[in-house]
Amino acid sequence: MKIQLLENIKHSLKLWMVLVAMFMVTAITSVAQEPNEKSVSAGEKTRVEGVIAARDGESFKVITKDGQDIYTVNITPDTSIKSNTMGVFRGGKQYEASYLLRGLQVQLEGHGNSNGGIDANMIRFNEVDLRAAQSLRVVSAPLEKQTRVNADAIAANKERIAAGEENAKRMSGQIDENAANTAKAQGTADAALAEADRANDRINGLGEYDLIKTIVVTFATGSSTLGPKGQAIIDEAAAWVKTQDRRGWMVAVVGFADSTGNVAKNKTLSEKRSNAVIGYLVSKHALPLTRLVQPFGAGVDDPLASNSTAAGRAQNRRVEIRLLKNKGIAGN
After folding, report:
1. Could you tell me if 255 and 272 are in contact, meaning their C-beta atoms sit under 8 angstroms apart?
2. What is the mean pLDDT of residues 147-160?
3. Is residue 100 within 8 Å of residue 106, measured between CB atoms?
């Protein structure tokens, strides 16, 4: 029964990945002022970390993490594009350029070209951030479409307003009537503009999130079984969650392992641990799958403590349940 439950969860991930926009688009949309367009001297070696703000053919714009600067990056036939699962600029899975999506956080190295941009030698990204960018594209597409529709309505209303004003000049006997019609059309245009602004605000907020709380559940060495102690920790957290305003909340579940054993085994073990926690959240506490973010097994990455001691390894054998609030979905 537990295996079937986990299989159902895997099949359902495609449905709730629209909520994964929590990762890193914040750097693009939360900046209070326009970033500075940076130019790189021809031949100058450059390294940039930031978020893809726009994609145009074989080039894209990347905004630095602090939101201050923006660079133009060109993808060449020699550009190496990989995930950084084994460390930045080391190892990882090879990807096509089509995976470089708006909202993806990247690290890149390259040299300046004659146009002031960067010809990228290598581009790296985290696979969790890739899933976030893919989900952002799914979620934002209908909102962007609505924004274009609203913009067209605004343009059409402005044309009608201009026509009404011209008729008022030519037909003095209907000035008052035309003025009333113009005011009405202006009100419609203002309403459409306000709706477009609201849609844009929702799009801009999709990548912005606040970390509300992190619940840590530890595991025994080599085990992915969620024991009574771990269940009690989750039960206590679930009781607290029920007392909160949960609009726009998402749950990210990430599994970890200590350094005991080989890397591949620990990667698989950390994934099993995250799935065990998800299974308990769904079966015991009826957590909607639409609240979940793509589960992830980080293996031995990101340890809380040193793996050189038994106490440190005990802290590292864990699953983190991260409670997040998506500002775009919550409407903030």
Report:
1. yes
2. 79
3. yes
Closest CA to 211 of 124, 129, 322: 322
Task: Compute the Cα dihedral for 208, 210, 216, 217 and give only its sign.
Answer: negative
pTM greater than 0.90 (yes/no): no
Distance CA 313, CA 44 (A): 44
pLDDT (tens digit, 9 = 90+) per residue, 36-89?
999 999 999 999 999 999 999 999 999 998 889 999 999 999 999 999 865 545
Start-end of H helices in 57-174: 127-170
Integer Cα distance of 18 and 294 in angstroms: 10
Which amino acid does the sequence have at 96?
Answer: E
Q: Are 267 and 86 in contact (CB under 8 A)?
A: no
53, containing H or E segment: strand 45-56
**Burial of 231 from C-beta contacts in 10 A (0-12 / 13-18 / 19+):** middle
Is 61 within 8 Å of 52 (Cβ atoms)?
Answer: yes
What is the residue type of 56?
Answer: D
Q: Which of 190-204, 228-242, 306-320 has the lowest mean pLDDT?
A: 190-204
What residue type is assigned to position 161 of the chain?
A: I
Which tokens sit at 168?
């008022």
The edge-to-edge listing of strands for the beta sheet with 296-297 is: 209-218, 318-326, 249-255, 296-297
Q: Across-strand partners of 318?
A: 218
- For position 99, what pLDDT does the model report? 92
Angle at 331 between CA 325 and CA 332, to 5 degrees: 70
For residues 299 and 263, the answer to whether their CB atoms sit within 8 Å is: yes
Write down the pLDDT at residue 202.
47
- For 63, 66, 89, 127, 171, the CA distances from 86, given in Å and listed in that order, are 24, 25, 8, 11, 75
pLDDT for residue 24:
40
